[in-house]
Specification:
This protein is α+β, with helices and mostly antiparallel strands and 90 residues long. It is built from 2 helices and 2 strands, in the order αββα.
């Protein structure tokens, strides 16, 4: 019996996911009105969609008239870097 080759699924890099969410508007490109940081709420990160446990810092960039955005430390850093890169490219 011949074995069929397995399909290998390669996950997107976090940077690629953040760029995609910036393009589709899930993550904003604009500067937040305010940035809060605190203990993780257990809610999913807006960027990677994984929970942010209480053992980690949760960042909440705040905007008027926008749903809550929650980010892990690393996701926040990548989001900031990509946001600034886009602004500098304009």
């Amino acid at each position: 019996m011949a074995l069929l080759p397995r399909k290998i699924v390669v996950p997107d890099t976090l940077a690629r996911i953040i760029r995609s969410k910036l393009e589709d508007g899930t993550l904003p490109c604009e500067e937040p009105n305010r940035l809060r940081a605190g203990i993780g709420s257990g809610e999913p990160c807006t960027a990677c969609e994984r929970p942010i446990p209480p053992s980690q810092t949760e960042y909440e960039p705040q905007y008027n008239n926008r749903a809550t955005i929650r980010l892990h430390l690393g996701c926040h850093g990548l989001w900031e870097a990509e946001r600034r890169r886009r602004r500098d490219d304009e």
